[in-house]
Design a protein that fits this description.
By secondary structure, the protein is of the alpha/beta class. Helix content is 38%, strand content 14%. It has helices at 23-33, 38-41, 66-85, 100-110, 142-147, 161-171, 195-203, 211-217, 219-229, 263-274, 296-313; strands at 4-9, 43-46, 89-94, 116-121, 185-188, 207-209, 235-241, 279-285. The chain has an eight-stranded parallel beta sheet, sandwiched between helices. Helix 7 links the parallel strand 5 (185-188) and strand 6 (207-209). Helix 3 packs parallel to helix 6, helix 8 packs across helix 9 and helix 9 (219-229) packs across helix 10 (263-274). The model has no long low-confidence stretch (mean pLDDT 97).
């Protein structure tokens, strides 16, 4: 599949810090500064967002603006599903990472009988639910929605009935829940997790590669091992949150964390992973130019994106 399409999701209603919806335009500015015509060469679709909700009350404190997130999941799911059915490779460029659950819903809608693997390159595990979230920000929940994970054993919050109903609706977008199991998940560079998440990761023995693993073994070996762990899957989705990179690089993101990988390692990982014929979708999220200096994060993200695209169309 050498045809690709950008699916642009300029949404930030799942984040706690404002500005991620501007990340995609910041990446386009970086492309212009590098003299690249990439965004002219690749077809793109712009998903209507619900950012107007930022000017209204946030709704449930345990799943802020979740009604808007459900709407986005449905829109993104349809776009990803249609793109895949059109024998085209979707590259999702997203604001905050909450909407990745919609991407996964779309892949499952396109391939409902397929075993889907997920490679999550991120500083965070993103498996909170409204019952465990410390912030209520839904960008900490996309994998919990995908796994249909409530984690009631560790509940800290008491969401009301409406919140619970909306959460259950979010889990079921695409008509399949759960969409993956813990065996179908690989984390790379996760290093900022809450105890409620650690409980799940240990209980389900989730495959994880730390930053030091990447630095010690190299991206080639980590990519090979990650793909090998998902050899039972017939399709694989790679989700890249820019905060997987070290906070010295990743100032332009809402939740930077120390001890991450370099932009070179991140690019090498993404390129190596998408060379695998099972990988059917790639996503990049959480560039926030309002927190940045001289658009550095978007420039790093663009260089990685450019490498990914050239790999897919070569």
């Amino acid at each position: 599949m050498s045809k690709i399409k950008f699916i642009e999701v300029k949404s930030e209603i799942g984040a706690g810090t404002r500005g991620a919806s501007m990340g995609i335009d910041a990446i386009k500015v970086a492309a212009l500064d590098f003299g690249s015509n990439l965004f002219n060469k690749v077809d793109s679709i712009d998903i209507p967002n619900e950012n107007k909700l930022l000017f209204e009350t946030q709704g449930s404190p345990y799943a802020k603006r979740i009604k808007g997130i459900i709407t986005l999941y449905e829109r993104i799911g349809k776009a990803v599903c249609d793109t895949l059915k059109g024998k085209t490779f979707p590259i999702v460029l997203a604001g905050d990472h909450s909407t990745a659950g919609g991407t996964i819903a779309g892949i499952k809608m396109a391939y409902p009988k397929s075993k889907l693997g997920v490679i999550w390159i991120d500083a965070h595990a993103d498996i909170h639910s409204p019952y465990t979230t410390p912030t209520g920000n839904v960008h900490g929940m996309p994998l919990a929605a995908t796994l249909a994970e409530d984690n009631l054993t560790n509940r800290m919050n008491k969401p009301d009935k409406e919140t619970i109903d909306l959460w259950n609706k979010l889990k079921k977008v695409g008509g399949i829940a759960p969409k993956i199991t813990y065996k179908d998940l690989v984390y790379i560079c996760v290093r900022d997790v809450e105890p409620e998440e650690t409980y799940l990761l240990k209980k389900h023995k989730v495959k994880m590669f730390s930053t030091s693993d990447v630095k010690r073994k190299g991206v080639e070996k980590i990519s090979r091992d990650a793909l090998s762990h998902l050899s039972h899957c017939s399709h694989i989705y790679v989700s890249f949150d820019v905060d997987s990179m070290d906070s010295s690089i990743s100032k332009g993101t809402g939740t930077p964390v120390r001890n991450g990988i370099t932009e070179k390692e991140a690019g090498g990982l993404c390129v190596r992973l998408i060379q695998n014929e099972k990988v059917c979708c790639f996503e990049m999220a959480e560039v926030n130019p309002t927190l940045d200096k001289e658009n550095q994060m978007a420039e790093n993200a663009f260089e990685i994106l450019q490498r990914v695209v050239s790999q897919k169309i070569s």
